[in-house]
Structure to design on (350 residues):
């Protein structure tokens, strides 16, 4: 295991150098619009659908435990909410034999309710040739299903001999695909939901996976870049594992990487795992069932009632300064789920 992990990380280190340059090229250099940070918040009870009917005074926003003034507030939800959905079929991290099952489940989801989708939706397919993304959005699930039927997924060309069974290359292809999607969505207004159907990306973290100082800095730069892109694009990311699992310990392993990374020396490849990014964005990481259609519906239930707030972030004392966010509610028995943090930058005049 140690030798395999070291092999995977040595290849990952080479890929990180290219990824860091790519991330710098496509990462926005400043906050769009008025410079405020916008958060989309889903409030849920212990069980049941999202809660509607709350008011601004029911919310308290803490930024690194410091209360911040909420500068705008909207209660939104339903088919009229300004939301676009991107549905990603991950064919490089799912076993080839399960891809046809996934397509069948997505077909069931798209054709439900006569093919009438609640929100404009686009399809994306990730293969070892890269990410293929549909141009434009459609609310016609039947048309999208027909489009999916026309797409083809060939046998993977990433071989077992390709570094820790191709894990490092699959990891980087996955990260690059998410960068590509977020960069495309940054200029588009409104909230976006990405539903990523995948068992997750290779977890190249653990004993024997230490990186050097330069690789840690490159990895941290990618963490900051991707976190910033997701926030600026107003993307909530969801992970739906099409294989399902009864191994609760394995399914929850990603949770040890959820804490925001404040310095490069603490960075690990696991900090960019799909389930980690989904949870940090305010989305869900579903892994205990292989009912993909039900999982997609569970994720989209978050759009039935949610709250948009904004606040003015304070200038940072240093570059890439991490701030942890927390929402507290005045009403008991409720939980607020939103983006867990952001990276702030110094004022240009500092």
């Amino acid at each position: 295991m140690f030798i395999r992990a070291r092999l995977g990380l040595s290849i990952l280190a080479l890929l990180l150098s290219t990824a860091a340059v790519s991330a710098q090229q496509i990462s926005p250099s400043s906050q769009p619009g008025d410079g405020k940070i916008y958060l989309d918040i889903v409030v849920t009870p212990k069980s049941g659908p999202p809660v509607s009917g709350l008011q601004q005074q029911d919310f308290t926003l803490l930024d690194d435990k410091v209360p911040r003034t909420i500068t705008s507030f909207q209660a939104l939800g339903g088919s009229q909410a300004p939301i676009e959905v991107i549905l990603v079929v991950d064919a490089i991290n799912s076993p080839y034999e399960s891809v046809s099952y996934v397509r069948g489940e997505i077909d069931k989801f798209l054709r439900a309710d006569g093919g009438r989708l609640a929100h404009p939706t686009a399809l994306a397919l990730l293969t070892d040739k890269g990410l293929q993304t549909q141009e434009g959005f459609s609310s016609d699930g039947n048309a999208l299903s027909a489009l999916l039927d026309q797409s083809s997924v060939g046998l993977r060309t990433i071989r077992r001999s390709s570094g820790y069974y191709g894990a490092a290359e699959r990891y980087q292809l996955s990260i690059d695909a998410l960068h590509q999607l977020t960069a495309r969505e940054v200029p588009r207004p409104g909230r976006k939901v990405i539903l990523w159907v995948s068992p997750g990306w290779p977890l190249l973290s653990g004993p024997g996976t230490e990186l050097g100082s330069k690789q840690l800095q490159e990895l941290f730069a990618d963490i900051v870049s991707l976190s910033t892109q997701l926030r600026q694009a107003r993307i909530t990311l969801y992970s739906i594992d099409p294989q399902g699992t009864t191994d609760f310990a394995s399914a929850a392993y990603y949770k040890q990487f959820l804490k925001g990374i404040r310095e490069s020396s603490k960075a690990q490849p696991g900090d960019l795992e799909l389930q980690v990014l989904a949870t940090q964005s305010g989305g869900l990481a579903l892994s205990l069932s292989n009912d993909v259609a039900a999982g997609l519906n569970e994720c989209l239930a978050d759009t039935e009632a949610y709250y948009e707030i904004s606040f003015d972030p304070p200038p940072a004392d240093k570059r890439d300064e991490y701030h942890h966010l927390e929402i507290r509610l005045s009403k008991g028995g409720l939980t607020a789920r939103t983006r867990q943090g952001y990276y702030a930058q110094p004022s240009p005049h500092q």
Observations:
- Residues 1-12, 17-32, 154-164 have pLDDT under 50 and may be disordered.
